[in-house]
Amino acid sequence: MLTPPTRLRLQNIIERIADSAPVSLQERIYVQKFADRDPTVSSWLRRARRRQLHGEPGGGLDGFLAAMDLGEPGDDGSFDPRRGDLGDWFSGAPNWLRRS
Questions:
Q1: What's the maximum distance between 2 C-alpha atoms anywhere in the chain?
Q2: Do 4 and 37 contact (CB within 8 A), yes or no?
């Protein structure tokens, strides 16, 4: 469980990452430490990286996939059955959506 000051500090750093604003190495390490242990922080960080790379998601399928937090931030989002497993494509999905 994150304390309110910790959550606000993390969200401030993550927002700067999403906006491509300067973030120190110590701040990145601090965020990653929480992202490694907390799935919510990990999701915030993935969404920030996706926004940093692709900008604000538009409507349609791209907006839906961004809201569902599917795929990796640098990924083009398409599934290629010849080189990947569908279960791996959903690796960023919430637990209820993953293949058992």
A1: 46
A2: no
Distance of CA 73 to the CA centre of its chain: 6
Domain boundaries defined on the chain: 4-89
CA atoms within 13 A on the CB side of 88: 9
Q: By the 8 A CB rule, do 68 and 90 touch?
A: no
Q: Do the Cβ atoms of 39 and 59 come closer than 8 Å?
A: no
Report the chain's mean pLDDT, rounded to a whole number.
79
Residue 81 half-sphere exposure toward CB, CA atoms < 13 A = 0
Q: By the 8 A CB rule, do 20 and 55 touch? A: no
Q: What is the pTM of this model?
A: 0.64
Got the DSSP string for 71-89? S-TTS-----TTT--HHHH
Cα–Cα distance measured from residue 30 to residue 48, given in angstroms and rounded to the nearest whole number? 15
